[in-house]
Amino acid sequence: MLRRKPTRLELKLDDIEEFESIRKDLETRKKQKEDVEVIGGSDGEGAAGVSSDPKSREQMINDRIGYKPQPKPNDRSSQFGSFEF
Predict the structure, then answer these.
(1) By its UniProt entry, which Pfam families does this protein fall under (predicted)?
(2) C-alpha distance from residue 74 to each of 70, 77, 78, 79, 80 (Å)
(3) Opening angle at CA 80, ends 84 and 70, nearest 5
(4) Can you tell me the distance from the alpha carbon of 10 to that of 16, in angstroms, rounded to the nearest whole number?
(5) CA dist., res. 70 & res. 63, Å (int)
(6) Which of 3, 60, 69, 70 has the most C-beta neighbours closer than 10 Å?
(7) Where are the alpha helices (DSSP H) in the chain?
């Protein structure tokens, strides 16, 4: 394997301006998202209300991933199939 000297990278003014614009854009999006969560929090669906109740947290995760658990029946036919005693 050939060894070569490291490539020198130079920071240009355009790069700095692009970085600043992207950072400001991300900050505004974050603030908007926080505002939406605060408004949703008054309805009981915000992140602050969810963290205290594990069932609602689990329900929120299930809704987010599209999982809809079906309750298991508690009769013997479901446990042992169609065996007859």
Answers:
(1) ANAPC_CDC26
(2) 13, 9, 7, 8, 11
(3) 135
(4) 11
(5) 13
(6) 60
(7) 13-41, 47-52, 54-65, 76-80
In the predicted model, is pLDDT for residue 33 greater than 80? yes
Residue 49, pLDDT > 70, answer no
pLDDT at 57: 86
Cα–Cα distances (Å) from 37 to 1, 27, 29, 51, 63, in that order, read: 54, 15, 12, 14, 17
Question: What is the pLDDT at residue 48?
Answer: 46
* 77 CB-contact burial (10 Å; exposed 0-12 / middle 13-18 / buried 19+): exposed
Give the integer Cα–Cα distance in Å for 62 and 69: 8
Residues 41, 47, 53, 56: is their CA dihedral positive or negative?
Answer: positive
Residue 14 has pLDDT above 60, yes or no: yes
